[in-house]
């Protein structure tokens, strides 16, 4: 259950959590044309709180909206300020932030006409997304029977609400079959991403991730690529197959919610030594160090706020 906070920012105002309601004829509720973000804030090493890569997330929210043809009735600066304001009013020193842009009620055809564009920002505490053990021990993954979106079926660079029906199909299938997460292949059969995470593999110390074809351009992915390169690793963006994943030395998922989650098994095949690999361990450690303000080099990725 999501832990209630005091307020939700809704269309420019802070309203009580229980009052952030919509009509059942809300257009997005029927057809899925809305966009959202998932952002985290952390308590830093110095005890202050900071949002990780706030600007990149807000820019992606606006990019997603542009891709699906929605004009957000606020500026990037207004949404950025509203996120900080919501965290502060809720007294949340560390947690998850969910901005959502959706089409309100009015006409009910597929064409949304001039229905209002509405914006909500909710915040709540959220621990390890894939379970408490996942970050340390790694997870068991199954290749999904559902393919990831074809690039001309859904717009994969947009974090669109409706895109997640595909994720839900895959996630529920994987969990029902006793796995922690689903790996989805693209429509050509190459490894794409998970239901809410990008993927990396490591072979002979070279780090590989998928190119930005069928995947969401993850902000954690981009951050880890930079951190890994700064640590001296070679990082390549290249399509790879599921059998290349099977014989990788290491594999891990990454995302704002999932952070850096090692993969210990795929399709009942043990990956590497069946535990968090050395590279994943190092990147996970450095990722948590960076998000908590422990490395000056990445200071401009943090937006500090005071409770
Ligand atoms: N792919 C999908 C499908 C996702 O939902 C997410 C989570 N936003 C990611 C990748 C990772 O993106 P990010 O690192 O920006 O959270």
UniProtKB/TrEMBL annotation:
- GO biological processes: isoleucine biosynthetic process; L-leucine biosynthetic process; L-valine biosynthetic process
Please name the pathway: Amino-acid biosynthesis; L-isoleucine biosynthesis; L-isoleucine from 2-oxobutanoate: step 4/4; Amino-acid biosynthesis; L-leucine biosynthesis; L-leucine from 3-methyl-2-oxobutanoate: step 4/4; Amino-acid biosynthesis; L-valine biosynthesis; L-valine from pyruvate: step 4/4
The entry's keywords? Amino-acid biosynthesis, Aminotransferase, Branched-chain amino acid biosynthesis, Pyridoxal phosphate, Transferase
A Pfam match is Aminotran_4
Q: Which reaction does it catalyse?
A: L-valine + 2-oxoglutarate = 3-methyl-2-oxobutanoate + L-glutamate; L-leucine + 2-oxoglutarate = 4-methyl-2-oxopentanoate + L-glutamate; L-isoleucine + 2-oxoglutarate = (S)-3-methyl-2-oxopentanoate + L-glutamate
User: What EC number(s) would the UniProt record show?
Assistant: 2.6.1.42
GO molecular function (one):
L-valine-2-oxoglutarate transaminase activity
Q: Which GO terms describe its cellular component?
A: cytosol
Q: Which SUPFAM superfamilies match?
A: D-aminoacid aminotransferase-like PLP-dependent enzymes
**What PROSITE patterns does the record tag this protein with?**
AA_TRANSFER_CLASS_4 (PS00770)
Q: Which cofactor does it need?
A: pyridoxal 5'-phosphate
Question: What's this protein's function?
Answer: Acts on leucine, isoleucine and valine.
| Protein family membership | Belongs to the class-IV pyridoxal-phosphate-dependent aminotransferase family.
NCBIfam families listed in its UniProt record: ilvE_I (TIGR01122), PRK06606.1 (NF005146)
The name this protein carries in UniProt is Branched-chain-amino-acid aminotransferase
Tell me what organism the protein belongs to. Answer: Maridesulfovibrio ferrireducens
Gene that encodes it: ilvE
């Amino acid at each position: 259950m999501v832990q209630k906070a005091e307020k939700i920012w809704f269309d420019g105002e802070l309203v009580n959590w229980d009052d952030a309601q919509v009509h059942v004829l809300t257009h997005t509720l029927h057809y899925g044309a809305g966009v959202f973000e998932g952002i985290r804030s952390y308590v830093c090493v110095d005890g202050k709180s900071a949002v990780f890569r706030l600007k990149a997330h807000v820019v992606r929210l606006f990019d997603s909206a542009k891709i699906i043809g929605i004009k957000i009735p606020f500026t990037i600066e207004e949404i950025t300020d509203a996120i900080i304001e919501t965290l502060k009013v809720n007294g949340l020193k560390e947690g998850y932030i969910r901005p959502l842009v959706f089409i309100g009620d009015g006409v009910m055809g597929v064409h949304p006409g001039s229905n209002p564009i509405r914006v909500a920002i909710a915040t709540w505490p959220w621990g390890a997304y894939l379970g408490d053990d996942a970050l340390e021990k790694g997870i068991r993954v199954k290749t999904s029977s559902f393919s990831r979106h074809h690039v001309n079926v859904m717009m994969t660079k947009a974090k669109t609400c409706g895109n997640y029906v595909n994720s839900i199909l895959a996630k529920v299938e994987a969990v029902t079959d006793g796995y922690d997460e689903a790996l989805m292949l693209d429509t050509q059969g190459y490894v794409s991403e998970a239901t809410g995470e990008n993927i990396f593999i490591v072979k002979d110390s070279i780090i590989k991730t998928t190119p930005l074809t069928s995947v969401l351009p993850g902000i954690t992915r981009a951050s880890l690529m930079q951190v890994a390169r700064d640590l001296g690793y070679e990082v390549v963006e290249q399509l790879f197959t599921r059998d290349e994943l099977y014989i990788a030395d290491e594999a891990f998922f990454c995302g704002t919610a999932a952070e850096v989650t090692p993969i210990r098994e795929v399709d009942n095949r043990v990956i590497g030594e069946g535990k968090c690999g050395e590279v994943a361990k190092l990147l996970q450690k450095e990722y948590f160090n960076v998000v908590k303000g422990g490395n000056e080099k990445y200071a401009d990725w943090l937006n500090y706020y005071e409770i």
